[in-house]
Write a structure and sequence with these properties.
Blueprint lengths: L8 E5 L1 H18 L6 E5 L3 H17 L4 E4 L9 H4 L17 E9 L3 H11 L6 E9 L11 E5 L6 E6 L1 H4 L3 E6 L2
Parallel strand pairs: 2-3, 2-4, 4-5, 5-6
Antiparallel strand pairs: 1-8, 7-8
Helix pairs in contact: 1-2
Length: about 180
């Protein structure tokens, strides 16, 4: 197949698959915590923040109470900024103290593990949680550090020349997970 004949993107999860996956992940998260009231969701910019909002709605529907949800931007803790470049830094927003809490880091895709390493370092600047867990929608492999998600929607082995896109209704007007060839 020639490069020009390749589709622009390949659907990995449809909107319905994504909804089922969020429901499954939410149930798994609740099974792993003693008290859902002690759970703090921290989305990692950019798509992890939006995914955390989707998860929070599902978790609230399952538990019957609101959950604490915030944003953790690990940009200044990265060790690979010269390689990956920078984006506009998003303010870290912690609605409550992380001390003694079960913290769920939420990101769309795990790749090398360096973003999560930076996020773990950033958390330490804010206190000492009881437990830190990681939820990702897609694990695409290529890890450079021994970091694995506790909760994963889908494992999708990729080439380094490919990328994964999480699309969410609130942000993109469509839902799904797609594989794209990097140009």
């Amino acid at each position: 197949m020639s490069a020009s004949a390749r589709p622009e993107r390949v659907e990995i999860l449809s909107a319905q698959d994504l909804a089922r996956t969020v429901q499954r992940l939410s149930s798994q998260v609740l099974e792993s915590v003693d008290r859902s009231q002690d759970l703090l969701l921290l989305g990692i910019p950019t798509r992890g923040v939006h995914l955390a909002s989707v998860l929070a709605r599902q978790l609230e529907a399952l538990t019957g109470h609101a959950l604490a949800k915030g944003t953790l931007d690990p940009t200044f803790h990265r060790d690979d900024l010269e390689r990956v470049g920078t984006r506009m830094v998003q303010a870290t927003d912690l609605p409550i103290s992380i001390e003694g809490r079960d913290v769920l880091l939420v990101d769309d895709v795990i790749f090398t593990g360096r973003t999560i390493r930076a996020a773990l370092e950033a958390i330490q600047a804010w206190g000492r949680p009881r437990k830190v867990m990681l939820l990702v929608m897609v694990d695409r492999g290529h890890r450079e550090l021994p970091i694995q998600p506790d909760f994963c929607g889908r494992h999708v082995p990729t080439r380094r020349s490919e990328t994964i896109e999480l699309r969410l209704q609130d942000v993109d007007g469509e839902e799904g997970v797609y594989l794209r060839q990097v140009q």
